[in-house]
histidine kinase
Amino acid sequence: MVLTIVLSYFLSLYVIGFIGRLIDSTTAQGKLEYIPFLVVASVAVFTMIFLLLFYLLTKRIIKYFSVLSEGLDIISKGNFEYRVPVVREDELGALARNMNKMAEHLAAQKIKEKEAEESKMNLITGVSHDLRTPLTSMIGYLDLLRQRSYLDENEYDRFVNNAFSKAQQLKKLIDDLFIYTRLTSGNMTLAKQRADMRELLEQVLFEFVPIAEEHHAVVQSQIGIQKAAVHIDPEQVARILDNLLMNALKYSTTPKFIDVHLTSNQTSVYLTITNEGERITKEQEAKLFDRFYKTENMEHHSHLQAGAGLGLAIARQLAERQDGRLTLEYDNGHYAFTLELPLLECRE
């Protein structure tokens, strides 16, 4: 705008000067008669030149406004892949770049919403499938008992035990789903307190070893510390240990050996559970901590109740919620899951 006014001013002076030179060639009386004409001509020339220059200088700006308007309309209709061409380095160019950033943000948000929707559908599908299996078995056994379709007392006891086993499996699936939902929604509050990792591990092993022996597995523990003080939720850390131990028991190859090591350094305590299992690919290894993921070869190999594929996902999230981490080192059928937790104090 300022440039337009300046150019109009100087061009007007040039035209008016030219008219003035024509007037200078007339008599003095004629000059006086030309003064009103000179004023009107000056205003008219200035206005015409100003409008012409304003149109020429703003033509591109107005055209670019149309481009911005069209781009905004396209983006508002849901085409977040569209990008407004940036051809200027002024405020309009900055506006175009901001519009493109907005489109990128909306595109990323759309992808997240789509992934969330797919995740929700996968969750519903996975839960429905995993809950249906034990529930169907329970109904079958209870129906046999209701119709008294058993040969003797031994078969009666077997039906009852199988139904009870399926009920326990169903309860664990529901518990895992409940914990996982609370973790992912951020609604789970941990009851952290000072605890001794050695005592907690010994308590979990005391309950686990008889189960392992029932399935002909040998548990070997090596505890290299006398005391390890940590700030954790003991119940949830026990859940992590139980998930890892049961996972090792389910998928160990025969003969079944499960090694448990508890060590520490100056800052952290490390609990490592190792076992030999079926070989898996790198792609399968990368997915072991994904929810509902179960490899087919491991699933067929296990003679124990199959879970929903939530155990490792829950264990990792519980570890991270307590400032720790859960990692896996896999090598040719050798699995080593390590739980690392920050240490308050450790005395050997």
The beta strands are 193-196, 217-223, 227-232, 256-264, 268-276, 325-331, 334-347. Residues 193-347 form a domain with the Heat Shock Protein 90 fold (CATH 3.30.565.10). The two ends are 81 Å apart (CA to CA).
